[in-house]
Amino acid sequence: MIVTVTYNPAVDQTIQFDEQMAPDRVMRADEAQFDAGGKGINAAQLLTAMDRPCVATGLLGGFTGSFIRETLQGDGVETAFVDVDGTTRLNTTAIAAAEEYKLNQAGPTVGESVVDSLLERVRAQSPDRVLVGGSLPPGLSPDAIDRIATGGDWETIVDTGGGVLRELDAQYGLCKPNRDELGDATGADVSTVEGCADAAEKFRERGFDRVLASLGADGAVLVGDAGNLYAEALDIDVVDTVGAGDALLSGVLSAWEAGADDETALRTGVAVSSQVVQQAGTAVPDLGDIDSLRDGVTVRRL
């Protein structure tokens, strides 16, 4: 069973415009979409949709926090959040003339005592794997992630920014940077797929058993004891890239939970991510066609 920890969740607002955005003018959208967001939350929704036992934990506050809790419960996701003072952040993605503009809030300031409360929630679930995803709110340092990793007998997966990844000291089963985060964390040249794989292999030495790197239109690499695997991206019409990396990771974890090997897991991750990016927002798409999509993913060893 997997527990996801989202220290800094958000309500994701997605608005679309037919024309290019410009300063000093009022832009009006006919519709706005609101989704429960944050890396761990997105993963919990996808894992639940794929019938993998999962509990979502993290920090919630204010009316936006209530929205996230109610949304997850409505989607059938089991929750065990810690309530905090302040208001959970609102992140906005504006899509205009095929361009994306992202405006993210920092989140409410919290004290280190929330880590103790979160560890209590995690331990109560007796998970096999714990996924810590997303940014840290003001008031917490990377030690808050290390404390989760060393707080129990579970494998910990981490999906956060490259700067934070560099500061982690515990041992992790997997980290999932994107291309920019991988370059930031290692200082390596990640302009090519081979360069990304080499950087991921080097990064394993910092305490990560496996490294899963999302490379956007170039696909993804998974580096571990089973070798360096590269999966090409599927040829699809991309609408919105928000949540693409979360979907990749969720697909990989779902396959591992079913006993799959790394190659099958990587194929599954790319298939799930391909479904997510074909729609606006971070809501869970129809995943009924994942098996056929997975069969179309090309994987090779580097």
Automatic annotation (TrEMBL):
Annotated GO MF terms: 1-phosphofructokinase activity; ATP binding
PROSITE patterns: PFKB_KINASES_2
Enzyme Commission number(s) of this protein: 2.7.1.56
Reactions mediated catalytically: beta-D-fructose 1-phosphate + ATP = beta-D-fructose 1,6-bisphosphate + ADP + H(+)
UniProt xrefs under NCBIfam families: 1-PFK (TIGR03168), pfkB (TIGR03828), pfkB_Halo (NF041320)
Family, similarity comment: Belongs to the carbohydrate kinase PfkB family.
Protein name: 1-phosphofructokinase
Lineage: Archaea, Methanobacteriati, Methanobacteriota, Stenosarchaea group, Halobacteria
